[in-house]
């Protein structure tokens, strides 16, 4: 497209990463995939780590490839999953690979903190963040408890998007949306909560200046320019928590519409102007994560396609090469389709064998034993969509209004069976699209920062116009 502008989005998810080029011609947006790679965590003894060095290598490879394709790159934006971080020492050296949020070192840590330092009611009232065993607050406390020297050496904490940006620009900061997943922020002030850190005995000095999406955070260092062949390209802070970018790119039709970002995790909620913390939202474990343009993402985490991903990994490792479309087809065709699991049950957090975990769960719950690929998969699909129904009911009870539609985005919408089942089980119209929502939200913030797009509302129209949505109406189920 003549006179187009080009933006690079680096999007890192728990199962894989991609470097994509966004092309904007003043009317429409087009995406071009430049580099895609698997994200394979590494088990070291009993500890699960992210392979950060390889992810950074793949990132730089992707940047080099973009430079080969397009000479005029306007800027770069980075988004990743939440909660995880790297620690730098006083020489700005990385003190070890970042832990994976499914690592078992945080077991019972949440309870230890709420039994000894601050009650759950008070912690929730301060932070508005849902209880998840791997919240950054709990991970840092585990570091203090099990590897105190690590925290003593640490001078800087950088969440993963901040950490990638640091190795590109040399600048240190914490971006607000990813920081909002940590349970270290005060939801009322949208700033760090020093009393909380003190109460738990954690060093506030490692936390960096909080910056908001839309700010230029630096330009590529000379060394990175030489390594990638790119020029002095600016790095823009975007909604660096992938879900924040996904929600930014979701063309919400009305204020009563819900979004459902569907990947390894399913994040289901609504967009609000201010946080909501009360007894009902606490009891239903809803979270208040920061969004772009000062919005609040009032949502709940549901274990999503992680179950299907692990089933596929299990079958592949046992010589049964099978793709996601085939798994979905066999689930839809399962003869005995009465199986259902609770995907958020602890047994599914990081089992060695996901198929065995599902068989045991169904057996223990008197459902009989799922045997075929279809039966095991349908148990997961029923579990995931059943959770969606519970979350929607919880939202309507807390918010006091009816959700009018669910905007479903992310990799999971490539599965038409899942989209239709979501409509059927929740009784809500599902509007599916775009697939690459995190990437598009990332590029949208770069367009807004560049003044090419006025604001979020205009950006969502651009995405709706350029990518559209597919509608699924609830159907009666046998
Ligand atoms: C741990 C999860 O990654 C996090 O809770 C979720 O918000 C996310 O980042 C999904 O990509």
UniProtKB/TrEMBL annotation:
Residue span, Carbohydrate kinase FGGY N-terminal domain: 66-247
GO biological process, one term: rhamnose catabolic process
Species in which this protein is naturally found: Lucifera butyrica
Alphabetically ordered keywords of this record: ATP-binding, Kinase, Nucleotide-binding, Rhamnose metabolism, Transferase
Similarity annotation: Belongs to the FGGY kinase family.
Protein name, entry field: Rhamnulokinase
Location of the Carbohydrate kinase FGGY C-terminal domain: 258-450
Keyword Transferase among record annotations: yes
Entries under InterPro entries matching the protein: ATPase_NBD (IPR043129), FGGY_C (IPR018485), FGGY_Carb_Kinase (IPR050406), FGGY_N (IPR018484), Rhamnulokinase (IPR013449)
